[in-house]
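FORM 12-B: Structure-to-Sequence Request
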């Protein structure tokens, strides 16, 4: 995990103070700004010489590290392109490049000179949030199951230096917000990266309780299989029938708003390992199915971030956790189960299990009379065919909610793209033997999965994020932490903070 701290400092002090690494932005056709020029002078013109020979340049995202002096050990330039085209995409290119370079360096502390990086207060605040978020995420280092882990990034402290536009308090607010989002995404990555023999439904329940103990405004309760049975959650329970690991429903309540305020609910798919059940997956690549609780992992990350930021809203995170295994007790293709809503489901494919745990969790959250509900799930491979690995799939029964999530994705750089749900697709779910079947007839798999969930969300505003293409990249690269930035941005807009 990351142990990064962030703070604000004065740009005017940089050239005359002792620093391990100073980062200087370069814009095309612009001279070094005041602080950059002072650092250059303190280092006997090393930055200007590097620019003159072409080692350092303003090309967007290019980093160049130079040896400094006894007081400033290293200086790094970062290309920012032209000032006129320094938009949000350019910002994230810069912050990502800086984050990679800092996490790959030997420096334990670094200072980013931000006094001329932006033209207005809003742009500067956004840049600083992205910078601290991306640096925190670049410092994430998985060691949980390594007997002899290799050393992770050395960076422990990031300072942001600026004398203009924002007060020190506003600068600190921006970087601490970014750090909280980055740490939330890192919690998500850690949970999703853990192997399935460690990260079981019971482990997630334990993690929920641990999170509840850390924050005064966060209370956690766990529903076991007996309680879920009493509530009629036959659909959720059917998924774990073949496993020795008991299923859990984890409910995390953050009370930041008034008691009368309707909560915003997040519901995460928590399949801690997915063999496909009786509809067994091919063995090749099955190891990646430890990632099938990416939606649940993101709920944990968002809840930690919301509590860290002390948002003045009420948020409830619900995780439906189960392990999908084949055995003599496992649910079989053709079985019919009764959901908590009373609707019956013909299970034609036991590998379409995520929607089976989600539908009961979505019915469960009705009791909270939610303002809005968003579920998050690594639900379908079809979404990767549709959108690749760049954007999460977005479905909704309310245009306003869909717009809010779309805008949050754009603002955070964690994009989602809306797809349709309507009766033309929904009719694929019609069944002769139950109220519905759990898969469609073969086409538009992501849409029919969303149509299935929509049948359980008619009593409130609801959206579904299919993150099968965005929550993780590969076994080697691991979990991404998405869509934590999107969801935090969405909830921040609901808060006055």
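FORM 12-B RESPONSE
SEQUENCE OUT:
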């Amino acid at each position: 995990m990351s142990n990064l701290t962030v703070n604000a400092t004065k740009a005017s002090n940089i050239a005359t103070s002792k620093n391990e690494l100073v980062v200087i932005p370069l814009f095309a056709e612009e001279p070094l700004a005041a602080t950059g020029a002072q650092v250059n002078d303190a280092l006997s013109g090393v930055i200007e010489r590097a620019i003159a020979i072409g080692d350092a340049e303003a090309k967007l995202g290019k980093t160049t590290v130079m040896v400094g002096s006894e007081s400033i050990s290293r200086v790094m330039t970062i290309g920012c392109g032209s000032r006129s085209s320094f938009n949000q995409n350019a910002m994230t290119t810069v912050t990502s490049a800086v984050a990679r370079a800092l996490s790959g360096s030997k420096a334990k502390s670094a200072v980013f000179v931000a006094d001329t990086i932006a033209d207005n207060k809003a742009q500067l605040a956004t840049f600083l949030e992205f910078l601290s978020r991306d640096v925190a995420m670049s410092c994430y280092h998985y060691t949980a199951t390594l007997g002899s882990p290799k050393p992770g990034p050395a960076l422990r402290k990031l300072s942001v230096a600026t004398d203009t536009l924002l007060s020190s308090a506003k600068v600190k607010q921006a970087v601490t917000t970014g750090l909280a989002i980055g740490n939330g995404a890192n919690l998500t990555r850690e949970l999703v990266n853990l192997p399935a023999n460690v990260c079981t439904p019971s482990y997630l329940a334990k993690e929920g309780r641990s999170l509840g103990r850390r924050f005064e405004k966060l209370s956690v309760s766990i529903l076991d299989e007996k309680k879920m049975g009493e509530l009629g959650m036959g659909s959720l329970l059917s998924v774990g029938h073949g496993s020795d690991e008991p299923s859990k429903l984890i409910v995390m309540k953050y009370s930041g708003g008034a008691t009368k305020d309707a909560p915003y609910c997040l519901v995460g798919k928590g399949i801690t390992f997915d063999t496909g059940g009786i509809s067994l997956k091919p063995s090749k690549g099955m190891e990646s199915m430890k990632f099938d609780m990416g939606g649940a992992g993101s709920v944990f990350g968002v809840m930690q971030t919301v509590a860290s930021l002390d948002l003045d809203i009420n948020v409830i995170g619900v995780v439906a956790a189960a392990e999908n295994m084949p055995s003599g007790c496992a649910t079989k293709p053709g079985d019919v189960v009764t959901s908590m809503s009373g609707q019956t489901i013909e299970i034609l494919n036991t590998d379409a299990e995520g929607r089976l745990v989600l539908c009961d969790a979505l019915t469960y959250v009705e009791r909270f009379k939610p303002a809005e509900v968003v579920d998050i799930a690594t639900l379908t491979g079809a979404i990767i065919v549709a959108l690749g690995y760049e954007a999460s799939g977005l479905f909704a029964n309310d245009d306003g909610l869909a717009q809010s999530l779309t805008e949050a994705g754009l603002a955070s750089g964690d994009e989602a793209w809306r797809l349709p749900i309507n009766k033309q697709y929904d009719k694929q779910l019609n069944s002769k033997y139950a109220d519905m079947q759990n898969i469609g007839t073969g086409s538009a798999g992501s849409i029919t999965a969303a149509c299935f969930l929509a049948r359980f969300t008619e009593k409130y505003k609801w959206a579904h994020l299919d993150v099968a293409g965005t929550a993780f990249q590969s076994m080697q690269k691991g979990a991404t932490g998405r869509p934590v930035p999107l969801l935090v941005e969405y909830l921040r807009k609901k808060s006055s903070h």
